Amino acid sequence: xxxxxxxxxxxxxxxxxxxxxxxxxxxxxxxxxxxxxxxxxxxxxxxxxxxxxxxxxxxxxxxxxxxxxxxxxxxxxxxxxxxxxxxxxxxxxxxxxxxxxxxxxxxxxxxxxxxxxxxxxxxxxxxxxxxxxxxxxxxxxxxxxxxxxxxxxxxxxxxxxxxxxxxxxxxxxxxxxxx
Length: 179
What we know:
This protein is α/β, with parallel strands linked by helices.
């Protein structure tokens, strides 16, 4: 019996990896773009969820509705035709107390918990393994993600709060042995 050795794959350059949405930092893989095969990680991804007793077409809709306690504004945001519109409405809604200090992180964690339920969504999130999840972007969001636009203001890594909260949800599901 003879064994045929396949040639080793060509090393992938860093730019190609970034375009695909994955890269490595040391030995740990990094999912650095919530698009393509990793699009389900984005809050703009269509994934109907129920949060605080109301149904939303995306996590972006739910998060922006969570900015306010006004039911009229929540209805308007929930009915927005797309996640971008929900985000624009959320910027105009009256903010609930302590929004910037702490509540926005609590709401995002709750929305992600509501999004990643059910076997398929849980399996999708767990399929990211131990990869670092980074919402790489080019729209200068250094708070929820990590902007890579090349501007000096975005040269330092972003705070990546969305990626951190996604990893926390993944760890919670993995610890429970959820499949």
